[in-house]
Structure formats: structure tokens, C-alpha cells
Amino acid sequence: MENAVNKRILELCKERGYTIYRLSALSGIPTSTITSILKRNNAPTLPTLQKICSALDLTLAQFFSEGFDTLTPSQSEYLTEFNRLTAHERELVLAYIQGINDSRSEAPERTDTSKH
Length: 116
Fold this sequence. Notes:
By secondary structure, this protein is mainly alpha-helical. It has helices at residues 2-16, 20-27, 31-39, 46-55, 60-64, 73-83, 87-106. The chain folds into two domains: 2-66, 434 Repressor (Amino-terminal Domain) (Orthogonal Bundle); 73-106. Helix 2 (20-27) packs across helix 4. Residues 9-63 form the HTH cro/C1-type domain.
């Protein structure tokens, strides 16, 4: 498991073009700690992994999900932006989306009666 976690961290950094130094700066974890985790094949603690995930704009679930890579670029962008919101803002966004979908399902179907 340790090897898989470290491999995933390195894959995600490579995808984003992040160096260990950049990951350190974004996560607030000392470079020496990240280097030690990766070179010694040590499993990061849960709080450390959460900070790494936050720096990579991922949740822990996304980090461990193999299906995350199957999102389209726009879906990934939506999810990334959504993850940056506060819990209250997420509730508002969800309510807004549900409102749009509800209004579409309640609106009568339009037909084009105009002549061009």
C-alpha cells in the first residue's frame, strides 16, 4: 500500500508539472518530509496525505479513486472549482443546479412557430 500511495503522489505531481518543492510550498509540508516519505517509501500519515491532496486540489476519495482519471477536462475543472468552495457555498451551488434542472423539467416544451 505504501508503494501505491507514493507512486500515486508522484504520478499526480508529474501530471500537474509539480516539483517536490512546489508540492511542499502548496501543502505546507517541509520538503525534507516529502522527500523522506517518497525516497524511504514511508507511508504518509493521514493528516500529511490530506495536506498533499489539498495541494493537488483533490479529496482523499479522488486520490484513491482509479475512476477519477475518466472525467472529461471540463468535469475535472468543475470538480476542482467545487472542491475549493466552503460547505455553505457548495450547498448554494447544488441548490442552483437543482433549480435549473427543475425549471427545465417543469417548463412546457417549446416549438418554433416563427417563420424566417
